[in-house]
Amino acid sequence: LHGVNIVVQPGEVITLLGRNGAGRTTTMRAIMGLTGARKGSIKINGVETIHLPTHRIAHLGLGYCPEERGIFSSLSCEENLMLPPNLKTGSDGMSVDEIYAMFPNLAERRHSQGTRLSGGEQQMLAVARILRTGAKLLLLDEISEGLAPVIVQALARMITTLRQKDYTVVMVEQNFRFAAPLADRFYVMEHGHIVEQFSAAELDAKMPVLNELLGI
Predict the structure, then answer these.
(1) At residue 143, what are phi and psi to the nearest 5 degrees?
(2) 77 and 111 Cβ atoms separated by less than 8 Å
(3) CA 19 → CA 12, 52, 131, distances in Å?
(4) What is the rounded CA–CA span in Å between residue 117 and residue 85?
(5) What does the radius of gyration of the chain's CA atoms come to, in whole angstroms?
(6) Alpha carbons 199 and 206: distance in angstroms, whole number
(7) Cα-to-chain-centroid distance, residue 7
(8) pLDDT at position 209, please?
């Protein structure tokens, strides 16, 4: 990453776009303190986190859903959901009942082992696990990748609901059609740099530039 400068306002949905290897996942990991070296400044609600360990950053109300999901195969769906502690951020996490209302698939599979869940159900569980902790800033890395359209639509409804509940969401997405109607603002990365930033209102005008930057 080189001179990456991103501002996210409370309640916004932000999407990081770019080709594979552009630096989007590294940006997410840097925010969470999961990279080897960090320089510069990363502030969460005014708190400088550049020298904080990951567990301290999480307690500021951040939740990170990595691309690999990290579901424990030996635990049931509900055991995976109950595993993380409440972050005690001053904001109560969603109750299990609220989560099951948002993700009916998980309610049906609550006693199923992690390995028996479909890819889409595992993705729902990975996000739901964060919502239970009280995190209000969600970092979601490629949550729509490789999933059936019906599951992608369910995840889109989830993000819309979270925005209505004043959650802040930063998404890394390869699926532009998924991200476009959801995001308030977009950043485009290339070779570790931010090369474009624009609002949802500017999206149509920016399409020629996006086709050039994101096309293969």
Answers:
(1) -70, -20
(2) yes
(3) 23, 30, 28
(4) 23
(5) 17
(6) 10
(7) 16
(8) 87
Is the entire prediction scored with pTM above 0.90? yes
Please, which residues bridge with residue 62 across strands? 137
Q: What is the mean pLDDT of residues 101-107?
A: 92
CA dist., res. 97 & res. 89, Å (int): 20
Residue 201 in this model has a pLDDT that exceeds 80: yes
How many CB atoms neighbour CB 128 within 10 A? 22
**Angle between helical axes of 119-131 and 149-164 (0-180°, round to 10):** 10
pLDDT digits (tens, 9 = 90+) for 150-182: 889 999 999 999 999 999 999 998 888 899 999
Pair 171, 140: CB distance under 8 Å: yes
Cβ(184)–Cβ(10) under 8 Å? no
pLDDT in tens, 44-83: 999 999 999 999 999 999 999 998 888 998 999 999 999 8
- DSSP sequence for 143-177: TTTT--HHHHHHHHHHHHHHHHTT-EEEEE-S-HH
Tokens of 157: 């409804």
Task: Give bridge partners of residue 113 from the DSSP assignment.
Answer: 76
Rounded-to-integer distance, Cα 64 and Cα 28, Å? 8
Q: What is the C-alpha separation between 34 and 89, in angstroms, rounded?
A: 21
In angstroms, rounded to a whole number, what is the distance separating the alpha carbons of residues 169 and 155? 13
Token output for 10: 């409370």
Residue for token pair 């994101």? 214
